[in-house]
Amino acid sequence: MDERCDILLCGTGGFAARIAFDIAATARRPVSVVIAGRNAARLDWLVLAANARAAIFGAPASFRGHRTDLLARDAAPALIGATRPKVVVQAASVQTSQVIATTGDAWSRLVAEGGLSATAVFQTVISARVAAAITASGGGTMLVNCCFPDVVNGLIAALGHKVACGMGNVAILSNAFSGARGITDPARIQVLAHYQNLAPFRRAPETRSGPAPRVWIDGQEVADVYGSFADIRLTPEPVIDISGASGVPLVLAMAAGEDWIGHVPGPDGRPGGYPVALRAGRLSLRLPQGMTEDEAVAWNRAYEERGGLVIEGGRAVYTGALRDALARHSPALAEGFAIRDIESVHAEMRALRDRLEQTR
Questions:
Q1: Which end of the chain is more exposed for a tag (fewer CB within 10 A), N or C?
Q2: Which superkingdom is the protein from (predicted)?
């Protein structure tokens, strides 16, 4: 059977489900989607539910399942070769995003103290394999990496692979701000935001502090972002209902060869999130007047320089509180690693995580 498709969706978790279900509800042009994952029962359910939703909403979207374990060595090349997608939406990870709302073990405490870049290696391993498979296939497929794209997309690019962008993060805030202000034209708003900008909006307005995202509406920068959007409060757990939905219009546009305007994290491997435009199959930055690309990238990179993970000369370097937290448990890992060694580092990080998850 010919498995060629417009969109290949890797993963069967909550994030992938949101994407599939929103494609099923909003597609306006015929689109074929293959959902790939290793959990057969979950995979069958997502395909059934997505096709049912397409019928409910009268959307010309069709869904099929492809069972695979992307942790198996040859799985990614076989999957790309079988499905030959226009767009890959990579949402499969060996680290659940729910760790941000988890307490009670030493691993979750390390992530809470050092930041989500503690999970970067786990978020990279499958996405890097998928990216490598796309490269080996000759390219032509656009990769949207949903796994911690603010940081991971830079690692993928450093490995020599193309990655169009990610989903969520900056788009959570840009769409929350747009909804609060009744903005329906995405060209009216431009937001620079790193994933670390989400945390203050999970707290009560009176407790918010630290660097805020930068927001422009109709070309004018909002002077007091926390004050102007005090009514915006995110849930403590991952905001899948916004983040997963935010990329659906984009991937549908990619599959159909249409233009699109909005916000994405990690475009072409850049750190953090930016306003962008998709035109003629290419994503480009859509920055406020007077701001250069170097300024926007430096603004986003500064968050990881203060505490997180930065890329320097082919190495991933931990910084700030994250480096200190890792050093208490593994001085060797805290020193960072050569990005080409991501597979072996993944095994070392997994051993550390397994040990810390058993420590209360």
A1: N
A2: Bacteria
What is the amino acid identity at position 354? D
Looking at residue 34, the DSSP 8-state letter turns out to be E
Is the pTM of the predicted complex or chain greater than 0.70? yes
Buried b (16+ CB within 10 A) or exposed e, 186-213: beebbbbbbbbbbebbeeeeeebeeebb
**Separation between Cα atoms, residue 156 and residue 78, nearest integer Å:** 20
Q: Helices 75-83 and 120-136 meet at what angle, rounded to 10?
A: 50
Buried b (16+ CB within 10 A) or exposed e, 84-98: ebbbbbbbbbbbebe
Domain map of the chain by residue range? 7-167, 168-360
Classify domain 7-167 at the CATH superfamily level: NAD(P)-binding Rossmann-like Domain (3.40.50.720)
CB 267 within 8 A of CB 285: yes
Contact in structure between 108 and 115 (CB atoms under 8 Å): no
Per-residue pLDDT tens listing for the chain (360 residues)? 567 999 999 999 999 999 999 999 999 999 999 999 999 999 999 999 999 999 999 999 999 999 999 999 899 999 999 999 999 999 998 876 656 556 678 988 899 899 999 999 999 999 999 999 999 999 789 999 999 999 999 999 999 999 999 999 999 999 999 999 999 999 999 999 999 999 999 999 999 999 999 999 999 999 999 999 999 999 988 899 999 999 999 999 999 999 999 999 999 999 999 999 999 999 999 999 999 999 999 999 999 999 999 999 999 999 999 999 999 999 999 999 999 999 999 999 999 999 998 887
